[in-house]
Design brief:
InterPro entries: Glyas_Bleomycin-R_OHBP_Dase (IPR029068), Glyoxalase_6 (IPR041581), VOC_core (IPR037523). By secondary structure, the protein is of the alpha+beta class. The chain has four helices and 16 strands. Strand 7 and strand 8 form a beta hairpin. The radius of gyration is 17 Å and the shape is globular.
Length: 238
């Protein structure tokens, strides 16, 4: 038994504003659900939804996970950047060098993302969302590979990456040095379980997860953390 990655969830001060921004950038349909709130539905092989939950907490510090968006040409990269800026995004300085060809932006609430240049070999066979690029250890890459049943597609110099056998984005972890974790992550995974929930929770615990309590936990979900302390939710049927 394995869990399925059901959604990538944003804590948002204004879920509707953020949902509209990302719907416009990605070209995904936006819906509003009584239980799940503002949700974006993928229009490609991404394989998971994007959900925006409400929080009053301000964003502090860089996120531990961000999108790497791909480009098929310089013109396509420029069009993505222009579209994001027109929707309310902004350029963002994370210490990138002038000679680097990717463009770092932030959404209206400051969540960082990158628009990658054309010809990036690592993301060559990926869709528009090329990767969920994460700050994390080699061990956490191994954990998520086993948790989701996704094979490792990169494991070198303490950097890891996994990808669903069905395609979609890669999920990558950059290895040391790590940023200090301060408070709850702004983004987290929702996992859905096909089968007995308690058995799956026990399996995740055996892989190195822990049960936790965190603010803004989902209704009808079990809150957990991976070996690096990143929060995630296992959705129940209740």
């Amino acid at each position: 038994m394995t869990s399925r990655l059901s959604a990538l969830c944003f804590d948002a001060n204004d879920p509707l504003l953020l949902g509209r921004f990302w719907a416009g950038v990605l070209g995904w349909e936006m819906t509003e659900d009584a239980r799940d709130g503002i949700v974006l539905l993928p229009s490609d092989d991404t394989g998971f939804r994007i959900r925006f939950g409400s929080t009053q907490e301000p964003k502090t510090g860089p996120n531990r996970i961000h999108f790497d968006l791909t480009s098929t040409s310089l013109e396509a990269q420029q069009e993505t950047v222009a579209r994001a800026l027109a929707l309310g995004g902004r350029h963002h300085d994370v210490g990138q060098l002038p000679e680097e060809d990717h463009v770092v932006l932030a959404d209206p609430e400051g969540n960082e993302f990158c628009v990658i240049e054309a010809g990036n070999n690592f993301l060559a066979d990926c869709g528009f969302i090329g990767a969920l690029s994460s700050d994390g250890s080699q061990d956490v890459g191994y954990f998520w590979s086993k948790a989701l049943g996704w094979p490792l597609v990169w494991d070198q110099d303490q950097e890891t990456a996994i990808r669903s056998p069905h395609g979609g984005p890669k999920v990558t972890w950059g290895g040391p040095p790590f940023r200090a974790k301060t408070g709850k992550n702004r983004l987290h995974f929702d996992l859905a379980v096909d089968g007995e929930e308690e058995a799956e929770i026990d399996r995740l615990l055996s892989l190195g997860a822990t049960r936790i309590d965190f603010a803004h936990g989902e209704v009808g979900a079990v809150a957990m953390a991976d070996p690096d302390g990143n929060e995630f939710c296992v959705l129940t049927q209740a």
